[in-house]
Structures are given as structure tokens and as C-alpha cells.
# Entry
Amino acid sequence: MTQIPETPKQVEQLDLMQRLNAYARGEASWQPDGAKLGPEMRNEYALLHANLIHLVDHMLAPLLDRITAREMETFTMHDRMHGQKVAHLMWHILRQERRETLTPPEIGMMVAAAYLHDVGMALSPSERAARLEPTSDLWDRLEIQDSAKEMLNQLRAQVGNPNAHETVKRRAEQKIAQAEEALLSQDTRERHALPERYREVFKQLNDFHEKDRARVPDIESCLSFDGDSFRAKLIAVCVSHNQDAETLVQRDEHNPAHPRFPSDYPVGRCNADLHMIAAALRLADILDFDRERTPSVLFHYLLPGNLDPQDNRSVLEWGKHLTISNWQIEPDAIVFRGRSKSHILHHAVVQFCAAIAQEIQATRATFGALQEVNTFPFALLSEVKPEIHEEGYHYVPYQFELDDERVYNLLMGGAIYDNPLVAVRELVQNAVDACKLRDSLSEMADTSIIPNTTDRIFIRYEEPMADCPQPKLIVTDTGTGMDALIIDRYFLKVGRSYYNSSEFNQYRIQLRKSNLDFAPVSEFGIGFLSCFLLAGRVEVETAMWESVRGDTYKRTLQIDGPTRLIRLDEQSNQGVRRFKGTRITLYMTRGAIRNSKIVPPNWNQVKNYLIHVCQELPYRLNLEYVADAKTSQEWIDPLPLKVELPSELETIALRIPLNDEEAGLEGEIALLNPYLAKQLEESATTKISVSLLEDDIAGRASNTLLRGGFRIGGVPGLPDTFLFRSVARARLRLKWESRKNRRYISPKLARENPANEQILAEHVVHTWLKYFLEHVEDIPAGQLYYLQFGRRAGVKLETCAWLEEYDALRLYQLAKQGWHFMLQNIRNPVSDDTIEEWESGKGKSLWLGSMRDDLHDALLDLVMPRVTTLQMGTEARFYGSPDFDGKIR
# Structure
């Protein structure tokens, strides 16, 4: 049993520092044979000892003490005592035999890392102001929601409003301060362990030294031993503490032949085990879990008000540490003991103990596949037990659990996916994202690279053969592929998408700086499940194209149903022609139900579905069909963003361009002239027919909304008419570049429609109706003939606040285009002279129409109350009286 002793107050009292001082005095040796150390080397050890004390006391500790500022109040203490505790724990979690062989540079890097790893959280007033500037990358890095930005802008407008009451201004200032603190807290937590942040801190320290050489030591000298600087590797160690444990076995990005953290890194006449140092930092950091890290006075000072941990994350973070009284390393487990009056804090402790156990297991795994005890330099077992004494409650870890089979049946039973072929779209979608990520990362590394877009994605359909009684569908891509970590952490976790992970977000931040950013189409993490709509067995072959973790194995997963065990095979995958990317094979035994039988889709159905859905992909889809030992090849290229129309309809179409940055929409709307279309259809001299007015042309939907190149449904908000099935065509794409969170608008789960369909409909209505209002004089006669507003989209004209930009005269002039045309084409036509007489305020009342869904009727409903008196005729029709002075009022 090991009881961790009390943390010393001074850096020189640390066991690590005392060990280094013993080397300097010649009282101990780090060499395995116990060889005595010469005077020259002892002087180097003494210099390193003195430099570390100067580094901590005069440079790092003062910076760390600034981290108690309010922007970090939601997190536990990261001050100098946290650094002291981490260095203290580094020594005590090491095995005794490993302590005795610690080299001086290992001690130096461990002590420096303990204090340095969180120093990036300290922000000076100028740094705080700079991070909140509109040009700061904080806004991109955090992907802040539009609503939050809008709220901040409104508050700032209140503060700057000279007519606002002082009380309103003060409240707005308080809310702004709270919002800024929350933003800085999140930004600081995510950014403090980035290489550039450590370099900023080192530059500050160097500037302090230049200004006051007598009092502030030279940072470069403090981070050197025996003539060699270990500053660069120290930064890498500190960066790794905020990353996954797998980072410990990554390859060096500048020299892939070497590990990122070698175990024999030379520093002067000694070596340093960087793998051990980085592991010690992450383990000691997470093990600093007790009330020493949460002084109760500061707890109540920083967190006044509601102290219910159920509603306050700050209380939860601090309270779980205050719950722990002591902990120790026992023969069978690490045990944390304490008392609690809250079941919520009790559960938080249980969860955190599980996180500690997971961290120990993950770190242990990086020291060898066998995970033998003697290869792991730490005296830590993976079991972590909380022993909390309840006060006033009984803790039982009840929680909801998902029934895997039931969830699968809900997903696959038609409640979400009503077409089994959605599986094909999901696989192609994943392939596109993987290829885009690979291409972006490749271009970032080498700007001369021009990505290949033709031979990247292949869809192959094989008819049943002698050795395979069911048809096979194979989707292959040359994208990033997956290594063991990606497979375990994301691919096998239903509902967890890699494209919502911190690892991908870090890539995106780098890509943005090189203007190579892209938004993934995938986001839900459930798409792969749709494969089992078509197949009872799925085979996945995958290998990383260039693994940063040194893992280039080719792995094959054989999956018999989504809730059963998976067989995994691993193969060596070396050489220039090694497998890169992912290949997924569906052994199709499922599909649509026909005549009470389940029938897999045939090749024509798969191909037509792909043509229908994959309309604007950044890569050509290469199609292969295998039957009777023969292979035929086709491909699907992206289509232009233009509405396709038969030549017979081109002359009666009004094309309206659309580029709405706010909504993230661009493309084209084509509106047929309803009157001319009706004439063409009724004409005996033309070949026009109703079939040309249907909603599908050449196998592709003419009314298409695209998201990442995939069709996700029709365009909402288009006008229609009862004369034909479709009078409006549109081909629009959703954009992500102009959106504040740099993501596509989310679709519904089945990807058949956008999630916020009504909002898109409002933007579409705004586009075509604004075009009409601004081109009234150019609108062809008959364009508004029985043209209906499209209330089915949920948009009402009276709710379009933007119409206030136009006066009543402009609205009337547009309504007149339809109203007058209607009056001249009814059973008893109204002459031009009669209409002109009415507009001059004379003559008889005119019928306003009876179909209130018509666009001109809806406009008249807005305008006429300002123009004339409405009258009800004997036949229950509305008429407009010419009782005005010839003016629109």
C-alpha cells in the first residue's frame, strides 16, 4: 500500500529535485552500475538544479497564479500548486527501480513539464482583448452558434445606444462580460496546449528577460542541459497532455522514421525517455484529484449563488474534488475515499474514477502490445475504486440502457429509412468525406499537389456466382482509411461521428489557415447501420493512407448483423503499392418486399438511385457491373448548377438566379409561364404534353436541393399552380462557407429533407418574389396566371417582414400583373378601358378574384385595404370599389 505524502511547498523540496541535487553532490548515481559521477558532470547537474528553481519561482509560478482569473472559474485550480502537485505525483507513481535510473534531463523535463503544461491558460489583459477581437480565430475555432453571436451584437448595440437607460446599459455590460468570460474559458481550455500557444508564452518570457536580465532568467538556458536545449521536445510533451493516449506512439511528423517520443532521446551526455516523461505528465495530471486542488474559500468566492450541482457545471467540477478526502495506491487498486451529501457529486466521482482507469489502461497499452507489468514504468494498477460515504442518501448507479436490438429494429424498420437503397448513399457519402479529408491534408503538406478526382470512388455490382449465391455491392474509396483507433473510437460507436471529434476539428483549424477547409457531409454516425437494410453480412477492408500513429495495418472486419460479434483480421501492409482507403462489400440478401418476398435491388435500381442522388459530387463515380464473367463500366459526373428543361419549355421559362449568403443557398429557379404552358399543352400543332411538365426529366429530379453534392429532397418555397403538377423548377445547393459555424445545414435523419425546411422556404420565397418586385415591368404577360403562393411550405405573405422595403404602389403593380390578366381571361372579360377607368377612381367596382391562394390575390389582400373599400357581392365575391382619388394611399 502506498500513501501519497503531503505535497511540499517549494520546488526544491520535491523528491525529483532532491534526487537531482543528490546527483550534483555526488551522493547518488543514475547509472545502472552505480558508477560515480565526475566533478564536471556534477557541475552540470547543479546548474540544471539551479535553473529549474529559477524557472519555476521567477517565471512559471507567477504566470500560473494568474489562472485563478474568472474566465477559468468552471475548471479546478491550475495554479502553481497544481504544477507542484503534478511534479510530486510524477515521482510517487514511478516504480522504485525506475526512480533510481532517472537521468538529469529526464528530471529536468518532468519538473518543467509539470509547471509548464497549463501555463498557456494564463491570459494578460492585452491577450484577453486580442482573443475577443472580431478578427481572432476564436470565433472560427469554437464554431460559435449564430444565435450566440447575434445576442452579443444586440447587447453591444444596447451599450452603444445613446438613448438607452443607464440601467439597461449596465445590465447589458454585465451580460457581455459573462458571455466573454464563457467564450474565453472555452477558448483557453482548448487552445492552451497548442504548440503556437507555448511558443507565445516562451516569447513573452524571453521579452521579460530582455527587459530585466537581473531578475528574470533566460528561458533558453533554463531549458538546456550539458549544452543541449530540450525546449522543442518539452513543448511536444506538454502538447500531448491534452491529446489522446495514442499520441504517445505517434511518429514524428517531420521524420516519420522516428517515433514522436523516443525512449532514448540524447540530451548532452545523457538520454531521456520522452515516452515515459509524456506518460508521467498525463497520469499525474489526471490523478491530481482531491480537495487540495479546490480550496473551499476560493470555491465559495468564485462560485456565489446557486450551488446546486445539477444546474451548475462549475459546482460539479469543483465539488467532485472537494468530495475526496484522501487516496492511496493499494495492492489491487487505486482507492479514492471521501464523503458526500449529494448523489450527483457522488456519481461525478464515480465517473471520474472510471476516466482515470481508462487513462491508465490506454497509457499502459502504449508501452507494448503484451502490456507486461515490467515494461510499464509506473506503480499503477488499472482498477480505480471510489469509496464514498453517503450522508443523507443511498447511491445506486441507476441509468438508462439502450436495447441494441430494439434500437436497430427502430432504425431499420422503416421508421427512419423507408428506402433500403439509402445504404448506397451513406457509403458513397462516407467515401466522399474520406477523399476530401485526404486531399485537403495532402495539399496542406504540399501545395503543388493537384488531387485526382476521377479514379477515387468505385461502385461495383456483382451478380451471384458459383462461390457466392447472393449479389454483392462493393464501394471502394482511396480516402484516408481507418486505423485501429478510428475503428474502435468512431466506426464501432453508433451515433459517434469522427467528423464531430476534437481530432477532426484540429485538422479543420489547420486547413482554414491554408484556405483548404471543407465541411463534411457525414455527421450523425449512424449511416453505416443502413447497410443492413440490404445485407445480412458486411465486410470492411481498411487501412490508413498515412497514419500519424504509425499504424498502417490493413484490417478486415466481417460483420454478421449490426448487433453481433465482429471478426477482425490484421495484415501487414507495407510498400509503395500498399492498400490505402476503405472497401466495403455488402452481401445482399435484403431489400424491398415484393409478393411477400424480400428481394435485393438489381443493378439498374442501384444505378438509377445513384444517378438520382449523386448529382454534384466533387469526384466521378466509377460504376462497374459484373455478370457472366463480363464487366461493363460507366461513370457519373457532376451536373452543372442549372435547371434542365426540354427545349419546348425553354421559351416560356423565366430563370431567376439565387445567391443567398445568409441562408447559404445558391443556384437557379426556373418558373414556367402558366398561361403559355397551358396554351402549348392545348395546342394541336406542338408536341408539348403533360409529361414534359412532370417533376422528373431524364431520370433526374428537376426540383433538387443539394447538400455536399447529394440530393436531399426538393426545394421548398417554390410557387405552384393547380393547372399543372409543377410550374416551378429549381436546382439549388446548400453552402457552408458563409455560415458562422462552418457546417452544412443539418438534414433530417433520413436525409430526405433539410431539418429547417421552413426557414429555407422563407429564403426561397424571398428570392423569387423579390425578383418579381424588382422586375415588374419585365414580367411576361401570363407569368402570374393562377400562380399560387405556395402556402404548403408554411410561409405566409403577411409574415414576410422584408416586404416593408417596398411601398404599396410597388406591391399593387406586381399584383396588377396577375389581377388584370385574370380579369381579361374570365368568362366575361373586363376590358382595358374599364380597368383604367377603375384605377382613375371612376367606374364600377371590380371583382378581386376568388382563389385567395393566388399570388396576386395574396398581394391584393395586403394592398387593397389601403387603396379602396372592399365590398361583398350577392354571389359572395369580393369587389373593390373605385372610391379613391386615383392614388395608392
In short: Confidence is low (pLDDT under 50) at residues 68-77, 291-315, 369-373, 695-699. The longest strand covers residues 535-543. The chain has 27 helices and 28 strands.
